[in-house]
Write a structure and sequence with these properties.
This protein starts with a strand and ends in a 5-residue tail after the last helix. The protein has 488 residues and is of the alpha/beta class. 30% of the residues are buried. It is globular and about 70 Å long. Helix 4 (106-130) crosses helix 18 and helix 12 (316-329) crosses helix 14. 45% of the residues lie in helices and 12% in strands. It folds into four domains: 5-128, Response regulator (Rossmann fold, 3-Layer(aba) Sandwich), CATH 3.40.50.2300; 142-307, 3-Layer(aba) Sandwich (Rossmann fold), CATH 3.40.50.300; 311-421, Helicase, Ruva Protein, domain 3; 440-483, Arc Repressor Mutant, subunit A. Bound molecules: adenosine-5'-diphosphate (ADP) and magnesium ion. Residues 172-173, 237 line the site of magnesium ion.
């Protein structure tokens, strides 16, 4: 595989040289250019994993806006001189994925770069996932899921607008894709957009596109998601978070199937099926004047409600199985669970629903490659559940070898489990030994810094409390803060 490629756009020659050296040292290829000739660097054949833009360049806002646009989802990191963060406008900080102070330190830079690398690979995973038969992926045998499958069959072939409701992680996007795949539009694009993740001022151009010069930063004309989805399906995720002004505009498209790009008066006709989803209770949003009633009625023609995972625990074994199959298919490890472990999982509340379950399975696979997980091997928070008598009475497994292996490591495992559990967001990348090897000491330092940061954040910077969270003496933590040059 080619080395991941970073684009560095900076007019500051000294900084460019230093950064180039650092990036190369960390295993990236770098293309360094100044702010006048970066356009040709966005090539399709040699994809980038990240773009760094230095500050102090002329028309900074315009350049950053243009770069973000060309980068099209590739993370853009803005480099600024230490202490100048207040001078950067919030529009810029919103549009980039990271603002990094310069000079920086290795422990700060490393996790950012690591994330770039993993984001690129996970995007690749997602891409390959999308080509598989997705209807298959809506797993479950509960009455609710069986009912949803039937609804999907009934409504897919019509062009009706569908509203998918359910808590976070219940599978709203899975259902939306299943709908698209079951419809006539399956060969055409499925275009998702998260209305809650895009700042209000950018959402309109994101949805409807814009003309060149429509606003500061619009250096070229650009298609919006409605145009990209032509003939296919547009998935408006987290529609409950859409600003009111945009709701009006969306209503019009739903009624008239026409819109204009920002900065244009040419009306565009569209043939797009809209599927919307939200974890919010829209009736409440309407009462609070945050959601338009007329839009609600328009969307609510065909609602599909996905119950929380705790209300359909009988789906858990099938979901676990499916999640393991997916792990194996993408070479991210494997794991097996005993009946007792499954029985415990079925009693849990799962506030994060299937997403939480998926994270757990992924962590278990990292901790127990090819191993067998029993109830006692599950993370701490699962230890309060009882294994039902009838399962305890049964011989647990078919795979006795694995059981012995697991048992002999039991103590260490539970210890690691808590550590792993702290890394909710880094699922997968944590214990992956890179091909070129790793500097273990440095890696552990980074983990340490990250956990210390999290503890400090949780405790609003109160060192004594953070120390308690980390089970260390306050003085030890103070020492570490000094060692890592962590600000308090
Ligand atoms: N019924 C299901 N069958 C298989 N996988 C599911 C199911 N429901 C959810 N998932 C998985 O759970 C995770 C969260 O699903 P997602 O659709 O993103 O939830 P939501 O959009 O409601 O937050 C995804 O990894 C998805 O593949
Ligand atoms: Mg979602």
């Amino acid at each position: 595989m080619a080395l991941p490629r970073i684009l560095l756009i900076d007019n500051n020659k000294v900084r460019t040289q230093q950064l180039e050296a650092v990036f190369q040292f960390m295993g990236y290829t770098v293309e360094a250019v100044d702010s006048t000739d970066y356009a040709s660097c966005f090539s399709v054949t040699e994809p980038l994993c990240g773009v760094f833009v230095g500050d102090g360049i002329e028309k900074q806002a315009v350049v950053v806006g243009d770069v973000v646009e060309r980068a099209n989802k590739i993370p853009v990191i803005l480099l600024i001189n230490k202490g100048t963060s207040l001078q950067v406008s919030s529009i810029i900080t919103h549009s980039v994925s990271h603002v990094l102070e310069w000079p920086t330190t290795h422990p700060v830079l490393k996790p950012i770069l690591d994330r770039l690398a993993t984001q690129t690979t996970s995007a690749a995973h997602e891409g390959s996932d999308r080509r598989s038969p997705l209807v298959e992926r809506l797993k479950g045998k509960s009455q609710a899921i069986v009912g949803i499958r039937k609804l999907i069959d009934q409504v897919a072939e019509s062009d009706a607008t569908v509203l998918i409701l359910g808590e976070s992680g219940t599978g709203k996007e899975v259902v939306a894709r299943a709908l698209h795949d079951a419809s006539f539009r399956r060969e055409r694009p499925f275009v998702p957009i998260n209305c809650g993740a895009i700042p209000g001022e950018l959402l309109e151009s994101e949805l409807f596109g814009h003309e060149k010069g429509a606003f500061t930063g619009a250096l070229s004309a650009r298609q919006g998601r409605f145009e990209m989805a032509e003939g296919g399906t547009l998935f408006l995720d987290e529609i409950g978070d859409m600003p009111l002004a945009m709701q009006v505009k969306l209503l019009r498209v739903l009624q008239e199937r026409t819109f204009e790009r920002v900065g244009s008066n040419k009306t565009i006709h569209c043939d797009v099926r809209v599927i919307a989803a939200t974890h919010r209770y829209l009736e409440n949003e309407i009462k609070a004047n945050r959601f338009r009633e007329d839009l609600f009625y328009r969307l609510n023609v065909f609602p599909i409600e996905i119950p929380a995972l705790k209300d359909r625990a009988e789906d858990i074994p099938l979901l676990v199985n499916d999640l393991i199959v997916r792990l194996e298919a993408s070479n991210r490890g494997s794991v097996r669970l005993t009946q007792a472990a499954l029985a415990v999982l079925m009693q849990h509340e799962w506030p994060g629903n299937v997403r939480e379950l998926a994270n757990l399975i992924e962590r278990l696979a990292i901790m127990n490659p090819k191993g067998l997980v029993d109830a006692a091997d599950l993370p701490e928070k699962f230890q309060r559940y009882q294994v039902p008598e009838e399962i305890l009475a049964e011989p647990t497994v078919d795979n006795t070898e694995a059981v012995t292996a697991v048992n002999s490591e039991e103590v260490d495992l539970s210890e690691h489990m808590d550590i792993i559990a702290a890394f909710d967001n880094s699922s997968g990348s944590l214990a992956q030994l890179p091909e070129q090897g790793i500097d273990l000491k440095e890696y552990l330092n980074i983990l340490e810094v990250d956990l210390i940061r999290q503890a400090l954040n949780e405790c609003n910077g109160v060192v004594a409390h953070a120390a308690k969270r980390l089970n260390m003496r306050r003085t030890t933590l103070v020492e570490k803060l000094r060692k890592y040059d962590l600000q308090r």
